[in-house]
Amino acid sequence: MAEPLKILVIMGSVREGRMAEPVGNWVIEQSAQNQAVSCELVDLKDWNLPFFPFAQAPAAGNYSDPLQIRWAEKIASADGYILIAPEYNRSIPAVLKNALDFVFAEWGRKPVAFVGYGGAGGARSIEDLTCVARALSLAPLEASVHIMGVWGKVKDGRFTGEERDVRSLGNLLGELTWWGNALKAAR
User: Fold this and answer.
1) For the CA atoms of the chain, what is the radius of gyration?
2) Are 22 and 86 in contact (CB under 8 A)?
3) CATH number for the domain including 112?
4) Which of 14, 37, 130, 145 lies at a 20 to 30 A Cα distance from 91?
């Protein structure tokens, strides 16, 4: 059996009481059943990336800030990504957009999939993230998870997905595995 793909599951919210944490933990738990992937939860709270302050655009690739270099190394270490994408005011949380914009080349030619929640199951956040992903040369997948009524599915800090959520995540992981392997071979 081939070595599992390294997938970073990035929680797209840092606010108090966020649903990204229980949803992200659920993704990690569910993905543990898939031997083709090895998922790591990345909490943007732990990274505390400032809003991009540097003169040089990330696309230039001339990183000099130690935190930006560490973030670039973390992003480069993965074969693909799952973004936990809450919907804030019909779009992406600023902290998630900033994390995506903080580096550039390290994202390229890798698959990204989305687990959304909030209004319309996070559909508008995922739609916006798909455009951003393309600009970063990521390969956004059609397979995604749209969690409806997330607040009613979290008890004692633990998210429990309905059958539809579990099935959608299984499909997402299958697609991520296929595209991850294809793009890894092509890179």
Assistant:
1) 16
2) no
3) 3.40.50.360
4) 37
